[in-house]
Structure formats: C-alpha cells, structure tokens
Design brief:
alpha/beta; Peroxisomal Thiolase, Chain A, domain 1; five-stranded mixed β-sheet; 13 strands
Length: 329
C-alpha cells in the first residue's frame, strides 16, 4: 500500500483594506517610525475596523475554494488556529463553516498563539494520513486589534489583523508534510498572555478597569526565548531529516520580529533570499503569519521545494514543520 502524506494543494490569504502605518500609530501613542522599524522591522499593519475573526477566515476560505474550484460541501474538516475567537463558544471554526457553506464539515479551534498554524497543520496532516479524510482546511487567523491596548507601545506596534488558509489533500508522490516537531512550556505564560476573560479572571469591573483583557508582554523575556527556541527547533528538524542549508529552498518563519527571523535563518545557515519576509507589510498577525507568507510567495514556489516552517508563540508554544511543496503555481 502506498504511503499517504498530507500535501498543501492550495493557499489563500486575506487582509483588511485598512492600513495603519507607523506614523499613524505615532499620533496615538508615544512612538515613532524609526523606533518601531529599528526594533521590529514593521512599517505598517492591517486593521479590521468592521467585522470579526470569522469574517477574515471565511473570506480566505471562500477564495481558496473558488480558486481551487471546490464545492464547500466537499470539505470534511476545518481547523482554525486563533486566540481571538468570535465567542468563547461556539468555535470560530463552527461559524466559518456556516458562513462558507461547508455543511458537511466538522471542526474546532486550536489555541497555540503564534504557533497556531503549525499546530493545526500537523494535526490536520494526521487526519489526512489516517486515510479517513480527503479534504481538510487549516486556517490561521487573528484579529489582534480587538485585544490590543493602544496606550501600550510595547504591544500595540507589533500586531496586525489577517488570515490565511491552506487545503490539505492526500498525496502518494512523497510530497507534503514530511515531519514536525512541536513543543510547549506553560511556565512561559507569565511573560506573554491575555490575563482577563477566562476562568482565572472572569470579566468584571475590576478586570476591565485594570486593562486585563489586553495582550500583556514582557518583551525582553519573550525575545530571548523566541530566538533560542525558534532557531533551535528549526535546526533540529533539519538535523533529524539530514537536511543541509543547500537542501532547503525556503524558510517560512513566524513574523514577530525581524531580528528573530534573522537569528533563525543564521542558525539554519540560510541566506536572506531563502527566507520569506512580509513583516514590514502586515506586522505580527499571530496565527496568520505563516499562511500569509505562503500566499505572498506562492508564485515563487515550485513542486518539490523543501520548506521549513517555524514559529514561537505565547504560552510558550513553538515548533517547526518540514514539508515538500506539492504543486507549481
């Protein structure tokens, strides 16, 4: 029996039309274009003024299906990586299935912060590899502007809104997801979290007054852990699969900070021309960054390209996926 792997057979992104530049931010918080650019590499980000997380996800998925010529009723499973769901319940995946007309699909949300897409990709691949499912959609999406404190310049300058989706289908050519390494360490929650709104700190006058429903981050600690772990796991997956820098065609790194991206590429021995970067345009869209990179660079990808995806997120969560691209655009 031929070995079944899970291949990405289509990718699509969605970002809101509204652009917020660094100069726009400088009008509402004590910062500047030079301060943001030198520390993060970000020049602008997209902000969704009207609408919610499921709207962005549904737009990405609808366009994905249209591009591929697939009836929504053919989709069997939808996994949505997000930390900004429309509601505590029902799941955003449930809402997206309804909005897109994927009436035969079941799904769920996966919370792994900036690692949400690679966690979802590895999970979705397992369903395909089992032979039980033929068409699985994995979405990375976040409306970070909904949980940002625009009085806190250490967080509000970093994040933006956006969504990306991929279609996973069975492959017997030796293409698709080859390997993954996923890690987590809950001790890191103290450095990057949204403290209010859950069972630990349910919504109250006190949590609102103390601005606990916004993202809180200790930047220096997060940077230190991200550089070490994101670079480390990327090098580890190469070593485990006997890959050299010459073998790797593309690194798809989480777009959190240009210095973290550079450190990861350096650890892997990759030149900049092999690194997907769009942080300057979108900022950190959390679970959306990796599929948005694939979408932006899709036309440059060739069948058989060796790709390493790598991410680090709050929690802490981190990991890497090794895949071989399955089609020519």
């Amino acid at each position: 029996m031929e070995k079944i792997t899970a291949a990405i057979t289509a990718v699509q992104g969605y970002v809101p039309d509204n652009v917020m530049t660094n100069d726009d931010l400088a009008k509402i918080v004590d910062t500047s274009d030079e301060w943001i650019t030198s520390r993060t590499g970000i020049k602008e980000r997209r902000i969704m003024k009207d609408g919610c997380t499921s709207d962005m996800a549904a737009a990405a998925v609808s366009r994905l299906l249209e591009k591929k010529g697939i009836d929504p009723l053919e989709i069997e499973l939808v996994i949505v990586g997000t930390v900004t769901p429309d509601y505590p319940f029902p799941s955003t995946s449930n809402v997206v299935c309804d909005k897109v007309g994927m009436k035969n699909a079941w799904g769920y949300d996966l919370i792994a912060a900036c690692s949400g897409f690679i966690y979802g990709l590895a999970t979705g691949a397992a369903f395909i590899e089992s032979g039980k499912y033929k068409k699985v959609i994995v979405v990375g999406v976040d409306k970070m502007s909904a949980i940002l404190d625009y009085e806190d310049r250490t967080t509000c300058v970093i994040f933006g809104d956006g969504a990306g989706a991929v279609l996973l289908e069975p492959n017997t050519e030796g293409l698709g997801v080859m390997d993954h390494i996923l890690r987590s360490d809950g001790a890191g929650r103290q450095y990057l979290l949204q403290p209010g709104g859950g069972a630990m700190n349910p919504a109250s006058h006190e949590t609102v007054e103390n601005r606990m429903h916004f993202v809180k981050q200790e930047g220096k600690q997060v940077f230190k852990f991200a550089v070490t772990n994101m670079a480390g796991v990327s090098a580890e997956i190469m070593e485990r699969n006997n890959l050299t820098s010459d073998d790797v065609n593309w690194l798809v790194p989480h777009q959190a900070n240009l210095r973290i991206i550079d450190a990861t590429a350096e650890r892997m021995g990759l030149p900049k021309e092999k690194v997907m970067i769009n942080i300057q345009r979108y900022g950190n869209t959390t679970a959306g960054t990796l599929p948005l990179c694939l979408w932006d660079y899709e036309k440059q990808l060739k069948k058989g390209d060796v790709i390493i995806l790598s991410a680090f997120g709050g929690g802490f969560t981190w990991g890497s996926v090794y895949l071989k691209w399955a089609y020519n655009s």
